[in-house]
Structure formats: structure tokens, C-alpha cells
Amino acid sequence: MHKKPLSKQIYDARWCYLFVLPCSILTGMFVIYPIGMSWYFSLLDWSGFTKEAKFIGLQNYYEAVNDEFFWDAFIRSFIFMFGTVPVKIVLGFIIAVFLNNQVLKLAPFFRTVIFMPVVTAIAIIGIVMTFVFSPFNGPANKFLMSTNLTSAPIDFLGNPDTVLPTVMGVYVWKWLGITMMYWLAALQTVPQDVYDAAKIDGAEGYRLWIHIILPIVLPFAIVIILVEAVGALNVFPLIETMTAGGPFFSSEVMEIYIFRTAFVTDSGTMPRLGYACAAGVFWGVAVLFITVLQGLWMRRTRRI
Amino acid sequence: MKKKKELKISRRTVMKGALAAGAMMSAGSIPSKIFAGEYNIPDPLKPLPTTGGNMRWIDSGDMKGVFWKKLFPEYAASRGITIEYDGLPWKEINKIVPIAIRNGTVHDVFQLPLGMDPGVAVAEGWVQPWDDYIENIDEWLAAFPSGVYLPGVNQFNGKTYGTCLTANKRTGTCLLYSEKYMSEAGYDPQAGRMTYSEIRDAAKKITKNGNGQYYGWIIGGNQVNRWEDVVHTFGQVGGAHSGRGGFTNRHINFQNGKFQIASDQYMEAVELLLQLKSDGSAFPGVMSMNAPQARALMPQGAAGMIFQGPWCIGVWGRDAPDWKYGIASEPVPDGKEAQPLYIAEGGSNTFWLSANSTMGPFAGDLIRFMGTEQGQIYWAQTVGAADPAVNPDAVAKAGLTGPSAQALAMFAENILVGPNPIVRNKDVGIVAAKSRVPDPSLALVIQGLYTGQLKGVEAQLKDCNQRYEDALDKAVEEARADGANVTRDDWVFPNWDVYSNYGAEKYQEL
Fold it and tell me: Are the C-beta atoms of B386 and B313 separated by less than 8 Å?
């Protein structure tokens, strides 16, 4: 059969292309162009707002990979991810299992309560939490002291040993509702017949969940883990409002590091947008790499 | 009895009045007495545009904001414009202004981010000179004390790009204390400058008296610059003669041009902070609060002492008028005499006019008024010692009393004008533009030592000093590569007598 020329094919599908055009333009403007420019800027020695910008090749990348604070922040970001994602996944699943039970009359109420932090502005949460965890009259310390769990107030956000776990805890609390919703959506894809058949076969309790339900929702779990992992690597507003990366870098994750170098520092010297872009590009590639790995894992799991 | 004549205003009369007012507004020359407010704003020296408009103004707020919020509505009404004011902390200015410059939306009048070389702003074309907008500018400038307006600082190419209404003769680390707690501890800072040992002892006693309800000392520890400010100023008081200002001035001993971060005086100051912590005298949670939060806790009775600036006076006067507190000079190391503090020539709170601004005539008219003696008196009466008015006669006439007057007297006694490398060689500005504070900065090193994440004061300060030396060397090298005629010798002022002001004649001797 004679194949139509490309121009003819495009002309025939002109309406499809027309409908795709707005989205393509917006994607180009707000995704492709910024990514491309950040790659370009990363090759410059540039403060970001002077005319003077010198091309320096890969020097910014070289400097970044030789900066111990860069790697500290890099590793801290992954500590944050590995510390929060499993907790959210497991806790979200357990809550979803309970709230998926139609017999529980107050399920919608609890769903709403758990989901409420998700819709609250993150900057507000960050600021409020600095008061909640304040060692002077903060409710968290008041509770611990009144129940004799501690004899002296804990400086949750000012102590390098407690600051990151505290911020991680707030992050889990803030976004747990969305993980729960993902799981609820996944659980609701399990047909009622499966539950009935499992019961007839004598599978109940944890056996039902481990051997019947979990294998069915496993592909969803992969997607949820992927989304959660990427989300846990993007925590700038929460950390900036709660600790700004301190004390002494204890909670500085990659986004805070990039922000700090992209703008004028407290110490009052010129910002380094070129360097910040290099750190950002490096970080973006690392996140992309992890996403691809997870994608491959997901495909493999689906085949199994 | 004769009936009082009833005042009747017809609709036509109201219309006539409104039309007359409108005509006057559009004429652009409204007598200020119409707007009977707190301030007597004089008529402009020349007619202003009649198009009105909105003038946007951003600065670092605090007591400046308190004054502007009172003055701006009256000024705007008298000139038929509106004024949008944003008073923000420096941390926010440092972020917002560069972005606004980058995207062309910067305010009409703004302050440059901390540490940014004004020469860069002029060379990049972000700002325009005030000369066209301040009537009789030469006469106006002549009324300011010498050393406020200087080439390379706020004047470039023979024009005035930056205007200063305030002096920089102040420190940000005075001893501010609760009179009650300090008296109960058996100390009176008004009797004489306290020593480090006395500060420690007072803090211990206050903490003991507080029995968990209040503590000896507080600091906004997550605002890292506070650590550096305290150590820098205490180090100066202890005898480490160094400059103030941005990276290319701060911590440098101009006698030899070297950083003195690792000096004994700096180490003693850091040790004092660590001892306050190890004594248990520090307020719990200082690492998770910024300077304004720490300041706000003082009148609530949470702590006995804080090392902060005179801007607390206005804030406490407004928020806690009944609270009794005192202000005193920074403490001195045991067995030593307090040494002078130094400021660079030039004023403070420099205002820049955006190159894109169309509100120059109004901004110039307002700045001109604020530079007159009457404007300076108004400023001093509201802002007090927080940002002292630059005109000493106006300050004297403002009738300041209490802590404000005391603070100003203290600054006059303790602070001298030191050398400023940029006044000597304008190419130092290119070095400033190239310089980067190394990581971790002194501020962060002190914070790290305080939290225990870094060990060994001497070793850490020596490392930090070397980083600063290397960073300045690198910046000088880069500036020279770009054609700047500058060397590290520009930071050496062999004729600097640390006990006298460094004036124009000293620069000529070099």
C-alpha cells in the first residue's frame, strides 16, 4: 500500500496538532525553556543580575562536586527521603485500610481530619511549627514536661541532633493525608468479589492483606513510592520557614543549598546564580536518575 | 433668645468646593497647611508634575518604617500622589531587590542589598542620579556633615546617586538589660562598663533568681549575623582594631591590611558566648529564634540581658511602655580598657532611585525635605537612636531623652571614623563585587561552635581567618584580571592612629 507523504499526514491530522499546540507552547515556555537556560547559566560565572557573565565551562560543576557542603546537603536530602517515604507509605496504608472499611461510620470524618494539613499553606505550617516546638512555652515541650517524659525543655529546631527528625516528622504529618488518599484509591480498585472469595477460602486478617490484597495493589505502591520519593526531595518551603537550613547546616537539604547560593547571603556578598544553576542541574539529574531507576523497577514488578 | 443660625450647605456648594479642591490638586501646588497633620511639609521648591501617580518605596523598615508610615500619607496627600511602602528585614531585601532589578520591577526608591557595591549598581544602569530631582542639590549637600557624601561611596561621575539621611555612628550590640533582674543580681551597668566576668556572673545570678522562669541572657541565634556582630564588636572593644561594613572592610586591621578573626580579642569574645551557654545562663531555644523574636521576649521577662542595637528602644517603647530597661556599652574583657569602635565614612540607609522610575520629582522633593533641618528633626523625634539623623544640630534640637539620648551619647563617645579602602581607591569596589564570603562564614563558625558541631575555638577561628584571607586575595586577583588597579596594599593605612578620626587629610598623606 502506498504510504502518504509526511506533509499529507500532518495536514490530515491538523486538528490534533492544533489542539496539542497550546500545551506545547506552555510546556516550552515554562518547562523546556527554563531547563535549557539553567543548563546554559550553569556554565557561566554570573551573579544573576549584572551584565557581566563569563563563560567558564564546567568550572561550576567542578567546584560543586568538590564542596563538602554540597555533598552534605545532597546526602541530607536522601536521608530526608529515606526517613520520610517509608513512614508515609506504611502509615498511609494502615490508615487507608482502616478508613476503607465501610462499617466504620466516622471514616469520612477521620479522612477529612487527616487530609486537612494537606490543604493548609505550607509556609503557615512551617511558621506555626516553630512555635509548637519552641523550648520556651511551646506546646510540644509543655506536654513532654507535664507528663514527665523530659525534665528539661528540648530545643527541637535548635539542636543539630533533633532538627532534621523534627522537620521530617512535620513533613510526614503535613503530607500523610495525600498518601492515604492514594492508598484509598488503590484499595477501591480491589473488587468486592476478591474479598468474598478470600473469605470463602478461609483467608482472613493479615493473611487476606498480605497474600491477597497487597499483591493486587502492589503496582499502585510502586507509583505511590515514586511520587512520594520525588515529593520528599522537594521540601524547600517547609525547611526554609522552619529552620532555613540551620543550625550550622544541620537541616540544609539541596534545595536550601541552591537557594542560598543563588541569592545574596546573610554575610552580604554577591549571589552566584551560575553556580546555583550548576548545583541545581546536578541535583535535577540525580533526581531524574532515581526516577528512571524506580520506573524500571516498576516495569519489572508489573511483569512479575 | 436669639436662635442660632443653622449652617446649611447646599449640594451646589459642596460641588463648588469639590471642584475647587480638584483644581488645586491638579495645579500641583497645594499649600501644606490644608493638610493639617503632624508634620509641616513645605511647598515644593519648583512645581511638581500634575499627573499624580504611585511611588513605591522599599527599605529595611524597623523604626524607619514607623516614621514613614506616619509621614508618607501626609506627604502623599500634600502632593496628590499615593505612596506604597514596604519595610522589610534585610534578609528579605537581599532576596527581593535583586529579583526585582532582574525583572525590571524594582521600587522607585530602594536600598541595595547588604554588601553590594554601589558602583556596580551605577555601572549596570539600575539607578539614576538624584541631581535632577533635588532642587539646588549642591546647596543641599553642603548642609550635611563632611564625610557623608563621598565619591565612590554614594557619588559617581560627579553626580549623587545615593542619598543618606542617617548617620552610621551606632552599634548593634549594646548591652540592653532588665533593670529589675540586673538590680536583683547586684549589678548596675550604669556605674561603668561591665567586664566579661561580670556579665557571666550577672547572667548566672539572674538565671538562679529566675528558677526556670527566666534566664540570664538571650540572643536570636538562628539569625546567624547576630553571632558575628557580637564577636566583631566585642573584639573591637577588646582591642582588635578593625573596620566595619561589607566583606572587604569587616574584620580587617587597616594597620596591616590583614583579617584578625583569629585574634585573641575575637577568641575571648567567642569564649564568653560559649561560657554563657555552659554556665546554663542562656535562654533555652536561642538557636531556634531570630533577633526580633529574642528582642520581643525581653519585655515579657524571659531574660535579663541581650546584646542588640538601639532599634530595640523604639520597639519596646511602643510595645511595652511600662517595662523598665537600661542600655549600656558593650562589655570589655577583664583587665582591659575599652578601645574605640570604628565606622567607615559615609552615612547609612542609603536610598537609591530606580533608573526606571518616573516618580523622581516626588522622590527628590521628599528626600530634599528630609535632608533639611526640619525634616531631620522630625526623623530624630520618631526614629531616635535607632537610626540617628545625620544632622547633629537637628538631633540636638529634637529634644531626645531617656535611652535614646543615652545611646546617642554613648555612640558619640565610643565610635570613631576609621579608614575606608574604597575612599582611597574606587577600584576596591570592583573587588567587593567579585568577593564571596567563604563557607562556612565567621557567623556560621561561631554558630557551629555554640551548637557544639565545631570543636576548638582557636583552630576554627584560624581556619576561618585563612579562608577570608584567601577569598580576598582571590577577589583582588579577579579584579586585577578585569583591569582594576588594586592590590592588597590598598587595605594598609600606616598612618592610622586608632584613637582619632581618619579624615580627608589622612587620605592625602598616603
Answer: yes
